[in-house]
Design a protein that fits this description.
Blueprint: H1 8-11, H2 13-27, H3 31-34, H4 41-55, H5 61-66, H6 71-74, H7 82-97, H8 103-119
Helix pairs in contact: 2-4, 2-7, 7-8
The chain binds protoporphyrin IX containing FE.
Protoporphyrin IX containing FE binds near residues 36 and 80.
């Protein structure tokens, strides 16, 4: 198991729930992101929460409900360029800043989001 996949017990589900909540609270304020999202932001919040629980080594409920994540493929429906990536990343940074996390855990999460957001770019 990589270290990302062992974070779940160190973070705990309450903090991940808080992170997902903060993230979508921020998304509501950013038209560039809000316009891409569905009407049902509560459902969206639950999906990213369950996804994070799974990636960090917790229960696999995300895949039971949604199937294999295939994140890059699922994101192909939006034109994600460097600018949109920055909006997402800054939004997540703001969301992370409001959750009390061990420094090491915060850094692991930041590294992960940095990498995955880069991998999600599908447009110049
Ligand atoms: C790079 C910029 C990104 C953009 C612009 C973006 C945009 C979106 C949008 C618009 C949705 C739909 C939400 C809804 O249903 O209303 C979504 C879903 C989702 N995103 Fe992203 N996203 C990005 C990066 C990421 C990253 C880095 C992750 C994970 C580390 C991620 C994980 C997810 C997940 C798990 C879903 C739900 C997929 C599903 O089950 O349908 N996204 N994203």
């Amino acid at each position: 198991m990589n270290s990302l996949g062992s974070l779940h017990p160190r973070i705990g589900e309450a903090s991940l729930q808080e992170l997902a909540k903060n993230f979508y609270e921020e998304v509501r304020k950013i038209p560039e992101l809000r316009s891409l999202n569905s009407e049902d932001l509560e459902a969206a919040e639950r999906r990213i929460y369950l996804f994070l629980v799974q990636v960090l080594g917790g229960p696999q409920t995300y895949s039971e409900e949604r199937g294999h994540p295939r994140l890059r493929m699922r994101h192909m429906q939006w034109e994600i360029d460097a600018k949109l990536r920055s909006y997402w990343m800054n939004t997540m940074l703001n969301a992370l800043d409001k959750v009390a996390l061990e420094q090491e855990v915060r850094e692991e999460l930041l590294n992960y989001f940095t990498q995955v957001t880069h991998a999600m770019i599908n447009h110049d």
